[in-house]
Design a protein that fits this description.
The chain is α/β, with parallel strands linked by helices and about 300 residues long. Among the domains are: about 120 residues, Rossmann fold; about 80 residues, formyl-coa transferase, domain 3 (2-Layer Sandwich). The chain is about 40% helix and about 10% strand. It contains 14 helices and eight strands. The strands form three sheets. Strands 1-2-3 form a three-stranded parallel sheet. Strands 4-5-6 form a three-stranded antiparallel sheet, covered by helices on one side. A two-stranded antiparallel ribbon has the order 7-8. Strand 4 and strand 5 form a beta hairpin. Helix 3 packs across helix 5. The two termini are about 30 Å apart. Pfam families: CoA_transf_3. Keywords: Transferase. One of its GO terms (molecular function) is CoA-transferase activity.
């Protein structure tokens, strides 16, 4: 069983773990709540934006001179669900060995904090709050989003070898030995000045031109894509990340595929969402109703 009620609500409804486990010792019961099963915030309601704010994510996201910024999607909700799925799988393995189920509790806020392991771990080790650096990196430079003649490009120069190749690719060979950029630490120190030089150079050519040049130079780079670009992308199509099927209502529906393979094969079972009431009789039969009773109930 899975639910995302606030802590205490399922118990009040008679659907708590203790209420159900006695009848089914193998029950795996997963409760996803905002702040965990106990403590001063256990019964506090919350939404994704609050979890992003109170896990520290907003404080490290955005530009240095701007306000805190939320992640573009409902990332806390999704990551908590992913965490819950992993826990449920672990519980299933345990049940296969012991025959016993268990109670799994996942906190949305805590799950999103765990996603920030690099930054939060750095703070715990140093006591220094990580600065907001936009799309840049506090560790390497130039690593950022840059405008081109027709869009935006992302790139990462992660070592001194790449730096020299990067300068040659941009036609800025004089920068390679500039004392301000002689090593990565120096480039990070002078990142604002370096960003202006790189931005001016990249703005002279199209994204496609630069991607081709960086591919030849083996410099990590990519295009900033909108969803229409993602859907049209050859690799996305090959990976079946956009699938289409016919809905029971007689119209075509596109939806997102799955990002994994089993034994080199993507899941080929594509089942459209049912129309309202489409499976009512089937479900009632599975619950023990006779055919006649199921049809009678379905007609109500």
């Amino acid at each position: 069983m899975i639910h995302n009620y606030r802590s205490g609500v399922a118990e009040r409804l008679g659907l708590g773990y203790a209420d159900l486990q006695s009848d089914n010792p193998g029950l795996i019961y997963c409760a996803v709540s905002g702040f965990g099963p106990s403590g001063p915030m256990a019964k506090r309601p919350g939404i994704d934006l609050i979890f992003q704010a109170e896990s520290g994510m907003l404080a490290i996201t955005g530009t240095p001179d701007g306000p805190p910024v939320k992640v573009g999607t409902n990332a806390a909700d999704v990551y908590a669900a992913t965490t819950a799925a992993a826990c449920i799988n672990a519980a299933l393995v345990r049940r296969g060995i012991t025959g016993l189920g268990c109670q799994v509790d996942v906190s949305l806020r805590d799950a999103f904090l765990s996603l920030q392991a690099c930054w939060f771990g750095s703070y715990l080790a140093t006591g220094i709050q990580p600065a907001r650096v936009g799309a840049g990196s506090p560790f390497t430079a130039p690593t950022d989003v840059y405008p081109t003649a027709d869009g935006y490009i992302v790139l990462a120069v992660v070592n001194d070898k790449h730096w020299r190749i990067f300068c040659e690719t941009l036609g800025l060979t004089d920068l390679a030995d500039d004392s301000r950029f002689v090593d990565n630490e120096s480039r990070v120190t002078h990142v604002e000045f370096l960003r202006k030089i790189v931005s001016d150079s990249l703005a002279a050519r199209t994204t496609a031109d630069w991607l081709s040049a960086f591919k030849s130079a083996q410099i990590p780079a990519g295009e900033v894509m909108e969803y229409a670009d993602v859907v049209a992308d050859e690799q996305v199509q090959l990976n079946q990340m956009v699938i289409e099927f016919q809905h029971a209502g007689g119209f075509a529906v596109r939806t997102q595929g799955v990002p994994f393979w089993f034994d080199g094969v993507k899941a080929d079972l594509v089942v459209p969402p049912p129309a309202l009431g489409q499976h009512t009789i089937e479900i009632l039969r599975e619950m023990g109703c006779t055919e006649e009773a199921a049809r009678r109930l379905a007609e109500r």
